[in-house]
Specification:
The complex is a heterodimer. Chain A has 9 helices and 8 strands. By secondary structure, chain A is an alpha/beta fold. Chain A has a single domain (about 10-220), classed as Rossmann fold (3-Layer(aba) Sandwich). In chain A, the strands form 2 sheets. In chain A, strands 3-2-1-6-7-8 form a 6-stranded parallel β-sheet, sandwiched between helices. A two-stranded antiparallel ribbon of chain A has the order 4-5. In chain A, helix 1 packs antiparallel against helix 2 (about 35-60) and helix 1 (about 25-30) packs across helix 4 (about 80-95). By secondary structure, chain B is α/β, with parallel strands linked by helices. Chain B folds into 2 domains: about 60-270, 3-Layer(aba) Sandwich (Rossmann fold), CATH 3.40.50.11440; about 350-535, 2-enoyl-CoA Hydratase, Chain A, domain 1, CATH 3.90.226.30. Chain B is built from 22 helices and 19 strands. In chain B, strand 5 (about 85-90), helix 4 and strand 6 form a beta-alpha-beta unit. In chain B, helix 5 (about 140-145) crosses helix 6, helix 8 (about 210-215) crosses helix 11 and helix 17 (about 435-445) runs antiparallel to helix 19. Chain B is globular, with a radius of gyration of 23 Å. The chains are: A alpha/beta, B alpha/beta. The interface of A and B includes residues 108, 110, 202, 221 and 225 of A.
């Protein structure tokens, strides 16, 4: 009897890997679409003023940055966040997609992989993108809501760093996938754990640290355009 | 300096085989991006390439004559109809080695064919590079191959690399009588006429292999690019002894029955080195004082340069090959003519096999143009190509010792050979058994989306390509009792490939004699240029 070929998946980080943007661009869109002039001005101004801080925090610790950053969503209504996500995708994410992202996703699917986005972004912002790319699943952060309003806190565990690896492992167990046959794609050394946990890691448009890690571990390097 | 009359008695000027005597000069031997100068033991048989045959006096005239007097087909002009769809399929940069002085013969052929097409009202013309699962050629390489005028007129919309992984770009024809998949590039399959533009660098190129391999996909290639086919081939340079050629012929026959293919095949002479390195093609006995000085200067300079710089220097010297023949028409009769000329240039008859055979490995291979010779490519050059440069009987006796001369550095080009890195470092430590590798890992590598992407969008060899390189060495591995890499700069590279290492060639010969006995016979294939042995 032929041995059953184990099922596998390709896990893709999003920001910097499939799209040029990051969570700040997405939030900026929400800030700019606050609904009232005062709201727009207040949120846009505070986002702009915080930009240097975001930059430093992102460089030092991506997880801490995300936790800190999502506080800016506090007070926004759930309905509004979900509704605007579609427009945000068309205006922000879609134009920022690398031209070859779809090819890479298609190639993963042709090789028999389930396609899963694994991202520190918020789930409602990723759903239109996942639908557009033809992804099977999204592992992303979930905002906590109280009375229909975002609290600015993310339901733990926050999907970032080592937790991405844990989430992938749990997903594989749940879905009956062979982790050592799975592919992982990311642009950042902060996703080292996610790349190390799968059997077939690939660095995509890697930062300097990840590029040198990929060279050291003989991981393929893709330069998506 | 040795007196000239002493040198003269040591060899027959007409013969390409020299038996080393006490006063024989040291040999100038390729050693990766450098050279070694080695004295060989007395009695060592040194087999030299034949001197270059005379080229045709006028290449374009020879092309015109060939397409007007084809083998087994109507002349090309009679096959052209206004408004028809025509595709020229062109051999890729893997041949010739090193790339030839411009104009490349492919440019000359295309200039003649495209002019004829234009005169005949054939405007729907595409130029497709038959790169199969090789890397895509870069824009610069594509321009160099066909010349600026054709490049500007056709690139990128009508002059491009074949894409074996394009889901919409492949058409499957009917299967062979043995059930083998026959898949062809869609544009090629949908053409009214295909003109195959070939450069026949070694006898395994051309014929049915051109279409059967050049513009197909993994599903079709796996029927013959596998360890069993290689084991069943006594030599893949001799069609009669090659299961690889037999399988390609079955696939090619289906293609010929379904599509109209007009082959234009060309043969080149052995003029691989022009000034200032033309002395490399000479026998050391024929070196002048100037040649010796030039060799010493080159050897010294290359030894002092960083390896990448030495590679750059060597790659910058194109080969001044002359075209020795142009043949056109149907696949088999055309290729038969090509092979005749090819053998005339390359084949050297030798008496009997040897217990110990030495292959100096140069800096270049078909799969490392503008890149580097990684360990798997060193392996394929020695156990694959050089081992198979025979007409059915290998130079090495079964159980004999093969000595490869190369530094065997642990370096890979992540741009051109990404999947080689994983193959070498992840798979070879587990097993060197080709059958096991094929069964357990080939498909995984072939379908790895990262490697597929790098093949399609970058300039990388297909994910499955390192497997083919390993299979290519299968006969050498099966035949040799021991393989020694002389001059290997580390232990682990030869060890991972199941080979021994020594610091010097002299030590390797000593070890080989220890294995085969003191009276073991030794042969050195003084390659490059290309030489093929006909063992009697």
């Amino acid at each position: 009897m032929l041995a059953k070929v184990p099922a596998k998946a390709a896990f893709f980080d999003v920001d910097g890997t499939l799209v040029r943007t990051n969570v700040v661009h997405v939030y900026a869109y929400y800030a700019m679409n606050r609904g009232s002039l005062r709201g727009i001005a207040g949120r846009t101004l505070s986002t702009a003023l915080s930009a240097p801080l975001f930059g430093v925090m992102d460089m030092v610790n991506r997880k801490a940055f995300n936790e800190f950053f999502y506080r800016y969503y506090a007070g926004l209504s759930e309905d509004r966040l979900v509704t605007i996500a579609e427009d945000m995708f068309e205006d922000v994410l879609k134009p920022a997609l690398f031209e070859q992202s779809q090819d890479l996703i298609d190639e993963a699917r042709r090789s028999g992989c389930k396609v899963v986005l694994v991202t520190g972004a918020l789930d409602f912002t990723m759903r239109p993108l996942a639908r557009h790319l033809g992804c099977d699943d999204v592992i992303a952060n979930k905002m906590q809501y109280v009375g229909g309003k975002a609290t600015g806190k993310v339901i733990p565990p926050i999907i970032e760093g080592a937790n991405k690896a844990n989430a992938i492992r749990a997903y594989c167990e749940r879905e009956g996938l062979a982790l050592n046959k799975c592919h992982g794609y990311s642009d950042s050394a902060s996703d080292y754990a996610m790349l190390a946990v799968v059997g077939r890691p690939t660095a995509v448009n890697p930062d300097l640290r990840l590029r040198s890690l990929a060279r050291a571990y003989n991981w393929p390097i893709l330069d998506l355009k | 300096m040795r007196p000239l009359k002493t040198l003269q008695k040591l060899y027959d000027e007409e013969s390409q085989v020299v038996i080393t005597e006490k006063g024989s000069p040291p040999r100038a031997l390729f050693y990766g991006e450098g050279f070694l100068q080695e004295d060989l033991p007395v009695g060592t048989r040194v087999i030299f390439p034949r001197p270059p045959m005379a080229g045709v006096p006028n290449v374009k005239a020879a092309i015109r004559w060939a397409i007007n007097h084809p083998e087994g087909m109507e002349p090309l002009h009679a096959l052209l109809r206004p408004g028809m769809r025509l595709t020229c399929v062109i051999d890729d940069i893997s041949v010739p080695l090193p790339p030839m002085v411009t104009p490349d013969v492919r440019q000359s052929i295309l200039e003649v064919v495209l002019e004829l097409c234009a005169d005949s009202g054939v405007d729907d013309v595409h130029l497709v590079i038959a790169n199969a699962l090789h890397r895509r050629m870069t824009e610069g390489e594509m321009k160099r191959m066909v010349g600026e005028k054709i490049f500007d007129a056709y690139y990128p919309d009508r002059y491009y690399n074949h894409d074996a992984e394009d889901p919409d770009g492949i058409t499957e024809l009917e299967r062979t009588s043995h059930g083998e998949v026959v898949a062809v590039n869609r544009r090629v399959a949908e053409s009214d006429l295909i003109v195959y533009v070939n450069v026949n660098f070694v006898p395994m190129n051309g014929g049915h292999k051109s279409m059967g391999t050049g513009v197909t996909n993994y599903a079709s290639l796996r029927h013959h690019h596998n360890p069993k086919t290689i084991r069943d081939s006594d030599s893949y340079m001799e069609p009669k002894a090659s299961a690889l050629y037999t399988k390609n012929s079955r696939i090619g026959t289906v293609i010929d029955q379904t599509l109209k293919v007009f082959h234009i095949e060309t043969t080149l002479n052995n003029r691989m080195f022009g000034a200032p390195t033309d002395f490399l093609a000479k026998r050391e006995e024929d070196y002048t004082e100037a040649d010796r000085l030039k060799f010493q200067a080159l050897r010294y300079t290359l030894s002092k340069l960083p390896r990448a710089a030495a590679r750059k220097v060597l790659n910058a010297i194109p080969a001044p090959y002359d075209v020795t023949g142009v043949y056109a028409g149907a696949t088999e009769p055309t290729h038969a003519k090509t092979l005749e000329t090819s053998w005339k240039q390359y084949v050297v008859p030798v008496e009997g096999q040897s217990d110990i055979v030495i292959f100096p490995i140069p800096f270049i291979s078909p799969y490392s143009v503008n890149s580097l010779l990684n360990p798997l490519l060193v392996q394929v050059m020695g156990l694959g190509y050089f081992y198979n440069l025979n007409r059915g009987v290998p130079l090495l006796k079964k159980g004999g010792v093969l000595i490869l001369l190369h530094p065997a550095y642990d370096e890979f080009d992540p741009v051109q050979h990404p999947s080689y890195i994983e193959f070498f470092h992840r798979l070879l430590p587990e097993t060197r058994d080709s059958m096991k590798l094929e069964h357990k890992y080939e498909k995984e590598f072939a379908e790895n989306p990262s490697y597929v992407h790098l093949y399609r969008k970058g300039n990388a060899y297909h994910g499955v390509h390192p497997f083919y390189m390993w299979y290519w060495g299968e006969n050498g591995r099966q035949q040799a009792g021991k393989v020694i890499v002389a001059g290997a700069e580390n232990n682990h590279v030869p060890a991972l490939m199941g080979m021994d290492r020594t610091d010097t060639l002299a030590e390797a010969i000593e070890e080989a004699r220890g294995f085969m006995g003191r009276s073991a016979t030794i042969s050195l294939l003084r390659i490059a240029p290309t030489v093929m042995v006909d063992v009697k």
